[in-house]
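hey m, so remember when u said the tokens were messed up on ur end? i reran from scratch. heres the input so u can diff it against urs
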Amino acid sequence: MNQLHRFAVISLSALALAACNTTPPQQTATGPGGCKPLGGTQQTTTANSNTTNAAIGAVAGGVLGAVVGRNVANRSSVGTRNGLLLGALAGGLAGSQYNKMIGMTEQNDGSVKLNIPGSVMFSTGSATISPAFASTLDSVAGTIKEYCGLTATVTGHTDNTGTVEGNRRLSEERARSVANYLVSRGVDPMRLQQAGRGQNEPIATNATEEGRAQNRRVEIFVRPPAS
């Protein structure tokens, strides 16, 4: 077992023991507005209630993300920040019922792309967020707010059904709807950007329904602060 695997096993064992404790680990707020640096230290407090599954997931995600991040990209700062951010987002989404449907891809610039199927977020032809998906976006908003300097770009995409102009408008409306929702959950609008790509950037063929379903999506690029 190499050093990376040993560290991961030990860390997860510690988390399993922590789940039995009624005192959750709390992050130290060190930035303006109570945010904390990505990969910041932890302190224990007795002020809050019992540890929840979401909190355990966040810690687990952060630990594994940090381990992976520090062992990729020749230990570059991009690799480290990428892994830490991936872990933070994975932990935040651990309790979502849509967790397995949301793709997470590490980007070369240190950001993480969340690829969300449009079918779980919107009804056909609509830019109104599904109430069932709202709690998942709450987790994304919470992660962005929690860490100092994180920014995000929301990008909407469609398949090629309908007109080019209609698809462009729909993709822009969906991106705007997601960005507005994140703002309503306390994310600083200065930390958000939005764009609609319409049908111009397919990731699969539009010749089949399966391919079109993949193309109907929203991408959220979450970026760490510059080092």
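this time it looks ok to me. Residues 202 and 214 are 8 Å apart (CA to CA). if urs says something different then somethings off w ur setup not the seq
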